[in-house]
């Protein structure tokens, strides 16, 4: 991650938010705003809404720095989980304006010579993309609907014409494989 | 640990973390998590995976103007303004009331099916995001020591109040929920009637972030609209200390 190789770590920057260090906020924004914005845009498909989500998330972090608990995982993971939650909320409040057909991007390499991509913990993110690419299409299709669409498991089952139990099993299996891939990358 | 090994812990944590469960299922998982450190650990692992999944999307740069908007809003003076807001909590509460930014929904069987389905999704989503909960204690005569639990997303405004063991108030009166500021001022969070079993499941969208409130109280008020400020005896409630939590 850029923060660990070219400057203060994410943890250090988050700690500096507490005494209201604006430079730390700027650094975190520069590292992760494009990640937050990209994810939000993938879900809501609305530039203004994606901007609002990004703005609200960073302001919220600024106001409540203790919301991120390091023992619960990497900062970028927490940030993007929060972004997804906000984006899915917006989808569901738009009277079931669900987004289907959104797919994970497993092709874009997190090139080391791309300054933007250095902001991510490249080995973990790349490992995750590899694991995603290795999922069979049935698992991946269900996971993409579960992650991006705002549909419930029952609605996913209806949309795909699958038994509810199959959808549950596929969501669980897909996430377990990804979690195992993440754990493997960290141990290696 | 790469997988759960105890079958009696076989709750659907993945769907819970994604907000995909029906509310009844989500409540069961939330209650299990309260008591199960193993599953809490596993949930954290799943949540982190979900977070990393957010990196696997096509990168789009936000407009350059957005950076400036964020930094302007995070002006150094904002902390002083927040302090003033705390000091003038009563005014803030009144302003919030004027704004009328309040949503309360009560899931009841007689709801129309579409409303019910939508509500179920929201409840499941709130439970999935809730990262903190506390017991709601009975305080009125005849109430059990514990009447339920409130689940909140400390980073947001959504909360779920799960109540049981409530007597139905006398005709023409309703239970009313109040969110409490540190200075003791209260914000109306809506009224409700329990079902025949004495249970209620209330989705609360607080007017402001949960970190602005230090407790919750329930009173009995004239129905069906309730009161603009508490007039009846407080029968249940709870309090919390975010500052202690922030230091922990």
Describe this structure in words.
- The complex is a heterodimer of chains A (188) and B (248).
- With 188 residues, chain A is an all-alpha fold.
- Chain A has nine helices and no strands.
- The longest helix of chain A has 24 residues, at 164-187.
- The two termini of chain A are 16 Å apart.
- Chain B is α+β, with helices and mostly antiparallel strands and 248 residues long.
- Helix content of chain B is 36%, strand content 24%.
- In chain B, a hairpin with a 5-residue loop joins strand 3 (146-152) and strand 4 (158-163).
- The radius of gyration of chain B is 20 Å and the shape is globular.
- Chain B starts with 12 loop residues before the first helix and ends with a helix.
- At the A-B interface, helix 3, helix 4, helix 5, helix 6 and helix 8 of A face helix 1, helix 3, helix 4, helix 5 and helix 7 of B.
List the helices and strands and how they pair.
The complex is a heterodimer of chains A (about 190) and B (about 250).
Chain A: H1 2-5, H2 10-17, H3 22-44, H4 47-63, H5 75-93, H6 122-134, H7 137-149, H8 153-160, H9 164-187
Helix pairs in contact in A: 2-3, 3-4, 3-5, 4-5, 6-9, 7-9, 8-9
Chain B: H1 13-18, H2 23-35, H3 37-53, H4 64-73, H5 78-87, H6 89-99, E1 103-106, H7 113-129, E2 132-138, E3 146-152, E4 158-163, E5 173-180, E6 186-192, E7 200-205, E8 215-222, E9 234-239, H8 242-247
Query: What is the gyration radius of chain B calculated from CA atoms?
Result: 20 Å
**End-to-end CA span of chain B:** 26 Å
**Bulk shape of chain A:** globular
List low-confidence stretches of chain A: 1-5, 110-117
- Percent of residues in beta strands of chain B: 15-25%
| Mean pLDDT value of chain A | 83
- Residue ranges of chain B: pLDDT <50 for 5 or more in a row? 1-7, 101-114
Order of helices and strands of chain B: HHHHHHEHEEEEEEEEH
What count of helical segments of chain A does DSSP give?
Answer: 9
């Amino acid at each position: 991650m850029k923060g660990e190789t070219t400057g203060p770590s994410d943890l250090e920057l988050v700690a500096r938010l507490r005494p209201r260090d604006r430079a730390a906020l700027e650094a975190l924004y520069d590292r992760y705003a494009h990640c937050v914005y990209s994810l939000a845009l993938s879900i809501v498909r609305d530039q203004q809404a994606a901007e609002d989500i990004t703005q609200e998330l960073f302001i919220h972090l600024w106001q409540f720095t203790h919301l991120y608990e390091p023992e619960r995982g990497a900062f970028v993971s927490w940030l993007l989980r929060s972004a997804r939650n906000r984006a899915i909320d917006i989808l569901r409040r738009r009277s079931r304006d669900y987004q289907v057909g959104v797919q994970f991007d497993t092709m874009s390499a997190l090139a080391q010579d791309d300054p933007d991509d250095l902001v991510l913990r490249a080995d973990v993110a790349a490992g995750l993309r590899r694991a995603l690419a290795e999922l069979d299409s049935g698992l991946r299709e269900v996971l993409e609907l579960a992650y991006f669409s705002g549909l419930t498991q029952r609605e996913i089952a209806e949309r795909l014409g699958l038994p509810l139990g199959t959808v549950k099993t596929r969501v669980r299996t897909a996430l377990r494989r990804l979690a195992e891939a993440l754990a493997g990358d960290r141990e290696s | 640990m790469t997988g759960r090994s105890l079958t009696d812990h076989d709750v659907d944590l993945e769907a819970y973390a994604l907000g995909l469960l029906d509310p009844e299922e989500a409540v069961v998982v939330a209650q299990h998590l309260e008591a199960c450190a193993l599953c809490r650990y596993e949930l954290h692992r799943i949540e982190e995976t979900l977070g990393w999944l957010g990196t696997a999307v096509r990168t789009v740069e936000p407009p350059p103007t957005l950076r400036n908007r964020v930094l302007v809003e995070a002006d150094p003076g904002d902390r002083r303004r927040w302090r003033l807001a705390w000091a003038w909590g009563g005014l803030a509460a009144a302003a919030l009331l004027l704004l009328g930014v309040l949503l309360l929904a009560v899931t009841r069987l007689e709801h129309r099916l579409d409303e019910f389905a939508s509500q179920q999704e929201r409840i499941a989503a709130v439970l999935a995001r809730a990262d903190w909960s506390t017991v709601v204690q009975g305080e009125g005569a005849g109430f059990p020591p514990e009447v339920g639990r409130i689940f909140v997303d400390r980073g947001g405004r959504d909360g779920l109040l799960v109540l049981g063991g409530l007597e139905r108030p006398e005709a023409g009166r309703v239970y009313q929920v109040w969110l409490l500021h540190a200075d003791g001022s209260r914000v109306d969070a809506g009224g409700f009637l329990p079902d025949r079993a004495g249970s209620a499941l209330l989705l609360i969208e607080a007017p402001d972030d949960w970190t602005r409130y230090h407790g919750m109280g329930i009173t009995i008020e004239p129905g069906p609209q309730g009161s603009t400020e508490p007039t009846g005896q407080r029968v249940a409630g709870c309090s919390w200390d975010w500052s202690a939590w922030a230091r922990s």
